[in-house]
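Target chain:
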Amino acid sequence: MSEHSQPLLSYPGSSKVRRPWVYSSRSDYNQSGDDFDLGGKGLRPYTSTTIPSLHEPGKYQRPTSERYLNSQQCSSGNKYPPNVIRNQKYNVATFLPLVLYEQFKFFFNLYFLLVALSQFIPALKIGYIVTYVGPLCFVLIVTISKEAYDDWKRHKRDQEANSQQYEILTQDGYQFIPSAKIKVGDMVVLKKDQRIPADLILLRTSESNGACFIRTDQLDGETDWKLRLAVPTCQKLPNDNNLQQIEASVYADAPHKDIHNFLGTFTRYFPNNMPPQVEALSVENTLWTNTVLASGTAVGLVVYTGKETRAVMNTSHPETKVGLLDMEMNRMSKILCAVTFVLSLVMIALNQFRGAWYIYLFRFLILFSSIIPISLRVNLDMGKTFYSYQITKDKQIPDTIVRTSTIPEELGRIEYLLSDKTGTLTQNEMELKKLHMGTMSYGDDSMDEVLRHLSTYYERQQSTAENSVNRTKRTPSFSNTKARRDIATRIQDIVQALALCHNVTPVDSDDGSITYQASSPDEVAIVRWTEKVQMPLVFRDLNSMHIRTPGGSTLEFEILQVFPFTSESKRMGIIVRNKSTNEINFYMKGADVVMAKIVQYNDWLDEECGNMAREGLRTLVIGRKRLTEETYRMFERKYHEAKVSIHDRNTAVQSVISSILEHDLELLGLTGVEDKLQNGVKNTLELLRNAGLKIWMLTGDKIETAKCISVSSKLVHRNQNIHIISKLKHPSAVPDELDILRVQSESCLIIDGESLQVCLDFWKTEFIELAVRLPVVVCCRCSPTQKERLADITRLIREYTKKRVCSIGDGGNDVSMIQAADVGVGIVGKEGKQASLAADFSITQFSHITRLLLWHGRNSYKRSAKLSQFVIHRGLIISIMQAAFSAIFYFAPIALYQGILLVGYTTCYTMWPVFSLVLDKDVSEDIALLYPELYKDLTKGRSLSYKTFFTWLLISVYQGGAIMMLAIWLFDAEFIHIVSISFTALIFNELLMVAFEINTWHPFMIYSELASILIYITSMMFLKTDFDLDFILTWGFVWKVSLITAVSSLPLYAFKLFSRWYAPPSYSKLT
């Protein structure tokens, strides 16, 4: 319905949508359900105390108790949310309050706000107000401007999306309305490459078969096109306008987040109390918001809008990740706050609390406020931005994206790595390597035999058709011919099954070649293999499939039913009819664990599956069941009844399939598909193990396959013991396994999903306690549900060990694990970009993780630790000088430096040399990557610890005291000389200390040092109230400043050299 429609009470031709609101707690929703007119000018809901039966002829009656509402009444009822996109965080009224709250909830900013406000109180005023207000205002202006710009961009994007014009079909013809005005019940006409504006039911397409493709990469991150099907009843109509002439209703289930499931029915009504025609609706009949129509044109019926669409309901806002270094700095800032208070208290205590001591206490707190440097947050954020820039510009890890620029230093603290296997460690490019049929087996080097047998089969078929008279002629070599014919027939059976049992669609590319569209690389690999043995798939639509034989003829099949693969069922099936023979066959392929129960008894399947798994191959079992026409008709009737049910539909459908189809299948054979490791994976895993990382690998493979991959990928080193826990069904068996692990702390643990579930349900603490000590843990046979639970395991590891955890994956099922980790890394792979978009760092292949951690992680952490401590030192030293000055001059709370000197000290005089520490390198790139053992030191957190913090505190006390005492001792009669000598010595001391801390000089470091000296000397000529030019141009000033600087800095440098000689760092012997 749309507000541009004219109100109408009712009309003969209408289409309705039925949506249950039983789940809602809102009182304005009709608890028994509403049927809404979707196809015309009015809205016509009806209510009924019972849902009429739609399947029993003669019992259906049209509802007699109806209510008629027009569009204005519908809008006032607020039954459905508006179709408005809003990603803005603020509006005009809330912007400043919310932004200021976000800033002042941090201790640093709140502290300096109180200090700045105190300067408006005359009794607490010290020096110029701008000295305290200026830096805070600068930080706030930068932050507010950034937030305003970001929100303005969000507003523009929202405005552009909401104003996008869409064509809708009404009783008055076609009309264009903006996306924001689309309502439930509108029929939207979509063109190729157009974004879907709301959740729709696909009614019609421009293709005669009712099919269309959509791109879902903006919804689920998957790059493969998805096939969608129109409602058959609507597709058969002569044209789109006829949609306004039929009377029908759509049942849609309540809005939910699952983009892979939808339950609904389409019911068409006929006159004269004829029973209605009911068709089941599933996710294949839907077009979700933010997907894009990739082919043709389509007409869709709006069923969900706004916040009820799948896209909005799946829009999550993961918690903001805070780095360990930030938390350590927050704790140290509280210590600095305590130091400030204690120092202020000591000053008034030494003055014996004379006079208005409480006023003096506040004045001292303001004087010593530089102990907590407001520039610390700015410097760290600038540093993190620079590290992120370096990562994205690193040519050796191209196309790397930093999506969370606040935690690059976390890359240097990782101790646990959780990795998916398929697509992360492997290429996710499948290739069929082995075919086994019980008594016959064909490997990669003998596939030519398969082609020869196929050619023989079809040559004999052709010969039999041409010369039926000679079919019974006997020859001396009959027995061999019969044997060959038997082998050829069996090979033809399984190759034909592989060529038919899939959801692959051939698509003609612009260059004339044929590409295959499918949701799974396994299916594409099998279809490519059938093409290799000259039985290619040449055509497919909704109802038919064509296969070319080695002889050049074409086999045509009618597609009767398709049962898509799901991660829960682990199997896929199809029913086809051979158009030339009218034979009906049900083909099914799937994982051995489920297919073993479906196929007929055999004595080789389990053994051969194990053999292939030990070779690192993924296995698929293929089965077939021949159906009579009567059997299929019975199945079709029961299957349709189950599909149109609205209660427990999935259970009903599966019950029908299981009872009629999924039993006693003829076992045709077994395939082994290889997924090759990515380039560099072996070397990467070996380096990461040597760097001290504990690695958890997650896979859906069999235990034998997981073990093979673990060894071949060097996840497990050559002589390492492997302990396997499998098939644990009872909690009582867990303690024995855990006891074994206690004495094998260096073993690799391989555990299947079933056993993992038991351990986590009943022995969670004990299991995690032991598992986190192991160097390698491989979780195999992980179901999608268990993969989701691995996010909980990630959190358990974090909580139990208090160590940094990194998760890496490439698929949508890895997103929860990636978001739960301290650092999430996503790989852009065959499964799309969903993991990449959800991650903190996006890379293109697994081997890039080595450089990301060992090099960029090292630099980011070491530099941030040094930078933060130096910024703290810069504030501490000037506060110690202030304390010494006040102590000498009768504990008076008078500022030593005022105005521009205080502002310049942390900005133009020292800012760039101190910030240039972000370019420092303690080891070269080659050494960091060649000796991964160096990474172990980073995880111990020694670069920033309470030990280093108090070391810098003592350095500040020594240097501040030395500079102040020597300046007072050397000054000549006038107070201004104390300021000029001590401040100049302070500046040169800071520049020298930066130079002493640098391990590897960069040109920018030299330029920043020289530029800072030049700026300071130049400013001395203009700050005549602070500097006496006649005095500073004398040799007396020069030697006094030189002496003070030497006494304050050189002893510390000498001590540093001695410490390096006595206890050299781990990397010193390698440089």
About this structure: The chain has 35 helices and 34 strands.
